[in-house]
What we know:
The chain starts with a strand and ends with a strand. It is 31% helix and 17% strand. The chain has seven helices and nine strands; from the N terminus they run βαβαβαβαβαβαβαββ.
Amino acid sequence: xxxxHIHTPFCGHAGGExxxxxxxxxxxxxxxMGFADHLPLFHIEDTTLAMCQADLPLYVExxxxxxAANPDFPVRMGIEADYVREHLDDVAxxxxxxxxxxxxxxxxxxxxxxxxxxxxxxxFERRDINEVYEIYFNLxxxxxxxxxxxxxxxxxxxxxxxxxxxxDLSDLYHEVGRALAGSGVAIELxxxxxxxPVEEIYPGPNLLEIMRGHGVPITFGSDSHKPAQxxxxxxxxxxxxxxxxxxxxxxxxxxxxxxxxxxx
Length: 264
């Protein structure tokens, strides 16, 4: 299966050379792979979280170089863009400036709170966890409905540090499934959750089964920040997908998605 969620040193918190990530994908026998580094953030200036605006054209140029250098191995040019309502016009302009193969949408901020950053995780103890989940998933739905994104990444990343709701949120999850299906947005099975305190794939089994019930397509990603992480735990992603009832996934090129059967 292709790994579509690979970061680069441009984002300020990933290591290794981009050539090393490609070499690892080839070594694993992937049919293709894709970079999806962080689009510049427009609401804060922090180059440890995402590339700066001046680096976006350099990132694009580098991916194109790798595409030219690997004519027998498709290297897709993706991007991961944060949903911040006040800056959707900025995001749309940036996305429209280049021909990406796919755009990942992500929610990392609830208001000004970067909830997935370890330096701010103390804030969970100050908040009602059920309300946090409710707000987070409502932002995910709003992001999907913008039409800016092809895939919503790490769908339940709000659980990253092990904080779980204390009430049944099935109704909310079904609402999310309907919103994503109605917006034509896929989701990603992301193995990086296994490397986080929660030690669980994003999304978890119950949420994934609900997404499958609503016909939401899937992609696969390692969320690699080191070359050695490319394709990590993809056997577990495949098992989870099959367990939820999926028989296929989607690939992207030029923001057009193509269904593809899961490997045996």
